[in-house]
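INFO  loader      accepted 1 record
INFO  loader      residues=124
INFO  predictor   begin
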Amino acid sequence: MRDDDDLINDDDPDALAYPAFIGRWGLLPELAHRLAPETLDLIDARRHYWSEYRNAAGPAVASTGYGLAAAALAEATDGVIASFDSAFELEHNGETAEEFLSWWGDHQINFYGKKQFLRSHIIN
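INFO  predictor   done
INFO  writer      dumping tokens
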């Protein structure tokens, strides 16, 4: 649930760069490069959002699974995907599930290496 701490205040760094966002949801500047003002208004009108904390470079399958879960939620809610914990480059914030899935799997395999995804198949 979004609360007043999530809004941009006059003294926030984003207030200087995005004065039109003062009093609005703090994640909007991260999405402004990709989404139309009308879409930003719809996002800002929502009081709820999905959020998941993950550790960067965690286990390969779990980390990839977070992205797949995010895509499923975005698809089911006509929403967008964003990460503020360096799960991916910021320019991907605001992507639809389809846009996100077009590169996410390859990115994860390149980052972790194919071997990390095959480890569960190895019998000791």
